[in-house]
Amino acid sequence: MQETIARALKTQFEKEVYEGLADYPKHLSSKYFYDEKGDKLFQQIMNMPEYYLTGKEFEILSEHTAEIAEVFARGDQAFKLIELGAGDGKKTKILLKYLSEHNFRFKYQPIDISQNALNGLEKSLRTELPNLDVEIRQGTYFETLEEINTENGTKKVILFLGSNIGNLLHPQAVEFLKSVQHLMNKDDLLFVGFDMKKNPAVILDAYNDPNGITAAFNKNILVRINRELEGNFNLKKFRHWETYNPETGTASSFLVATQPQTVDIKKISLTVHFRAWETIHTEISQKYDADTITWLADKSGLEVVTAFGDANDDYKDYVFRR
Ligand code: AVI
Questions:
Q1: What's the distance, Cα to Cα, between the start and end of the chain in Å?
Q2: Per-residue pLDDT for 225 more than 70?
Q3: Strand 26-27 to strand 279-286: parallel, antiparallel, or no bridges (unpaired)?
Q4: How far is the CA of 209 from the centre of ligand 1 (A)?
Q5: Fewest CB within 10 angstroms: 75, 144, 146, 149, which?
């Protein structure tokens, strides 16, 4: 990137869009799918019959609630239940309800980058579980976890649900887990949702719904570039394309240019040329097997305590300690 332009790019979004679209092959990061509209589209995705992940994790938390609570409290230990990227907390509420009704000694601390999401969650918890001790924390995961760490020595149970780890490449996932591990004490636990390898057709369908909701979610990144960076992408000239490699377990999302075209993105002074059928890689959704999860844990200084699966072991929640 030229020095002068690099200096002019102020936000992380501007920098990453510039670098990703000036690169070959082109790429953009799926973390930019999520604005107000992207959040709504993702809610719709989670309610689609094809997107089995949400239902499977819901099943695990509903079917194994008592066992999970027992692992968390190990007897009668008090703990802080910290959730990274809590969102609307729909699945977590199963655990919260059980823990509250059975008088477990715990405090719920959801962390999210979106104050809006946290306010909504807090409001719903005040009516649904009025006796719950809840303290919302707005911020990035690690800054907030560090703050929580310095408070006192209470045991921490950290939740990272929804297969969010799957949106990271293996080296990034190791980095992420290592950073969490550094902030864990001896008794602390980490509870992570993993989508497991399964029939490739089922996985492809989950990311390729017939109603075009996933396509709209994928294209939302172009909508954001148009609005926030003064771009002129024509959404009709791109199609959503999903692949799944059953060997590596990687599902990949692309936006494919259906004809040659030139796009101007004024705010970052970038003109992008597309050949017909050229791609922008936008997301990976990694699927795992038990060996890969053990390998990830080893690399990150973590140890598997136990795991809970749905009836077919299509999806698993793993518990780690350091
Ligand atoms: C948030 N994340 C775990 C979702 C996934 O399954 O990778 C995002 C998503 N992308 C397309 N559909 C859902």
A1: 41
A2: yes
A3: parallel
A4: 13
A5: 75
Cα(285) to centroid of ligand 1, in Å? Answer: 6
Q: What order of strands is seen across the sheet that includes strand 315-321?
A: 137-138, 106-112, 79-84, 155-160, 189-195, 315-321, 303-309
CA of 186 to the centre of ligand 1 (A): 32
The pLDDT value recorded for residue 1 is: 57
Identify whether the C-beta of residue 240 lies closer than 8 Å to the C-beta of residue 210: no
ipTM: 0.99
Distance of CA 309 to the CA centre of its chain: 19
Directed axis angle between helix 141-149 and helix 170-182, to 10°? 20
For residue 149, count other CB atoms closer than 10 A to its CB.
16
Tell which one of 198, 285, 317 to mutate to probe ligand 1, the residue whose CB is within 8 A of the most ligand atoms: 285
Question: Which atom belonging to ligand 1 lies closest to the Cα atom of 167?
Answer: 7
Q: Whose CA is nearest to atom 6 of ligand 1?
A: 285
Q: Note the maximum CA span of the chain.
A: 64
Which one, of 11, 22, 151, 139, lies nearest residue 79 by Cα?
Answer: 151
> What's the whole-model pTM score?
0.95
Residues in Cβ contact with 68 at an 8 Å cutoff, skipping those fewer than 6 apart: 61, 95, 191, 308, 317
* Token reading at 199: 């029939």
Q: Is 207 in the pocket of ligand 1 (CB under 6 A)?
A: yes
The residue that leads in pLDDT, 116 or 196, is: 196
**Is 285 touching ligand 1 by the criterion CB < 6 Å?**
yes
Q: Is 185 helix (H, G, I), strand (E, B) or coil?
A: coil
